[in-house]
């Protein structure tokens, strides 16, 4: 795979047109640089998630796009027009916040219609569009209820319908599911994706939840310390992380280090590690120093046949956790501990603690990443 690059610019994939183009955007609070100058394209009609831990700059980025925060550098172009100095109320998109900010004295229908009423849209047209919006978010039968009579998920859908009613081409969502319980949150994740596809509106969604980002997104923009660490599809980021940070952020990875490139071909790289020589499929890395090898626990399996990458270990522990069995392994030579996750099967014998086990993994199931320890 490609090694990490330090360029802050992330090019548009394919031939889809960018609806929002951010160039050299920076935000500074006195001596603190909340957003380091970065470039980002949001493609027309996509569901883009901005993902990162607390303090990564993701919410500041969203607030700057929305107009609540003034940038100290750079451009924000919407459909070819620079909007960095355009007031919030004149920006051609809407924002949905964690606090849905529904008017408690208005019904669902009245809350949704509010934007159209402010714009002076005729009553008949307004009523028709409200019913269409309620249909999209599946609240047709709750239009006469007040916010206090709604569940958290229903309030969230009301806020979404209100954001959609004026037919914006872009909606910004600032962790709108954060206040929901786990079960409702999972339901709303799927629902958000369905609504986005039905409406065709571009969504930019902020969250710190990796599983949430994977569930809803066409692409994910991972942020760290005010910069974009990597951007790509959920599958790209999970299986082809460019840095140790991204590999760890999307769940546990086995890190094999130090690494030294032995040879490279068009689609194969041979890597020397303390665990032996490992074959990595994919384009050769752009850099040859400071790399580590990341292997997902589910990529490790008991070695059979002609597995190209094999590591001999001792079984340290075996934990049955329902649908999965987690096996901790210790490399015989380095004593480095590896984790293997396999699907539980009542007809399959579990490894025995203290026994030797040779594990293998496919050359396409590992990724070269920035190797510096976090």
CATH superfamily of the largest domain: P-loop containing nucleotide triphosphate hydrolases
From the spread of the alpha carbons, the general shape counts as: elongated
Number of helices: 8
Name given to the CATH architecture of the largest domain: 3-Layer(aba) Sandwich
Structural class: alpha+beta
- CATH topology (fold) name of the largest domain: Rossmann fold
Which whole number gives the mean pLDDT?
90
How does the SSE layout of this entry go?
Elements: E1 18-29, E2 32-43, E3 47-51, H1 58-66, E4 73-78, E5 81-82, E6 94-96, H2 108-118, H3 123-136, H4 152-164, E7 170-174, H5 182-199, E8 202-207, H6 210-216, E9 219-224, E10 227-232, H7 234-239, H8 244-249, E11 254-256, E12 260-264, E13 268-273, E14 276-281, E15 291-295, E16 301-302, E17 309-320, E18 324-331, E19 337-343, E20 356-361, E21 366-370
Parallel strand pairs: 3-8, 3-9, 6-7, 7-8
Antiparallel strand pairs: 1-2, 1-4, 4-5, 9-10, 11-15, 12-13, 13-14, 15-21, 16-20, 17-18, 17-20, 18-19
């Amino acid at each position: 795979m490609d090694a990490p690059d330090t360029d802050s610019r992330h090019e548009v994939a394919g031939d889809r047109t960018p609806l929002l183009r951010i160039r050299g955007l920076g935000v500074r609070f006195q001596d603190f640089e909340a957003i380091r100058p970065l470039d980002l394209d949001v493609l027309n009609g996509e569901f883009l998630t901005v993902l990162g831990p607390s303090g990564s700059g993701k919410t500041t980025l969203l607030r700057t796009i929305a107009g609540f925060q003034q940038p100290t550098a750079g451009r924000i172009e919407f459909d070819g027009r620079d909007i960095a100095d355009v007031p919030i109320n004149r920006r051609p998109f809407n924002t949905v916040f964690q606090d849905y900010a529904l008017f408690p004295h208005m019904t669902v229908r009245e809350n949704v219609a509010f934007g159209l009423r402010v714009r002076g849209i005729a009553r008949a047209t307004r009523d028709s569009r409200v019913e269409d919006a309620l249909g999209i978010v599946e609240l047709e039968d709750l239009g006469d209820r007040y916010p206090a009579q709604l569940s958290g998920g229903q309030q969230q859908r009301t806020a979404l319908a209100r954001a959609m009613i004026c037919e914006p081409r872009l909606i910004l969502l600032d962790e709108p599911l954060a206040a929901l319980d786990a079960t409702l949150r999972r339901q709303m994740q799927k629902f958000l994706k369905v609504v986005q596809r039905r409406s065709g509106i571009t969504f930019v969604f902020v969250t710190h939840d990796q599983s949430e980002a994977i569930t809803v997104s066409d692409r994910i923009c991972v942020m760290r310390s005010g910069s974009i660490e990597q951007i790509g599809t959920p599958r790209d980021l999970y299986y082809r992380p460019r840095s140790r940070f991204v590999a760890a952020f999307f769940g546990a990875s086995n890190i094999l280090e130090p690494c030294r490139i032995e040879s490279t071909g068009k689609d194969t790289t041979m890597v020397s590690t303390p665990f032996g020589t490992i074959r990595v499929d994919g384009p050769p890395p752009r850099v040859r120093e400071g790399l580590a090898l990341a292997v997902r626990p589910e990529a490790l399996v008991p070695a059979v046949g002609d597995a190209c990458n094999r590591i001999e270990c001792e079984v340290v522990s075996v934990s049955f956790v329902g649908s999965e069995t987690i096996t901790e392994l210790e490399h015989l030579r380095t004593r480095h501990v590896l984790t293997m996750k396999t699907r539980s099967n009542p007809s399959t014998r579990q490894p025995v603690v203290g026994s030797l086990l040779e594990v293998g993994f496919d050359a396409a199931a590992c990724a070269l990443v920035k190797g510096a320890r976090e």
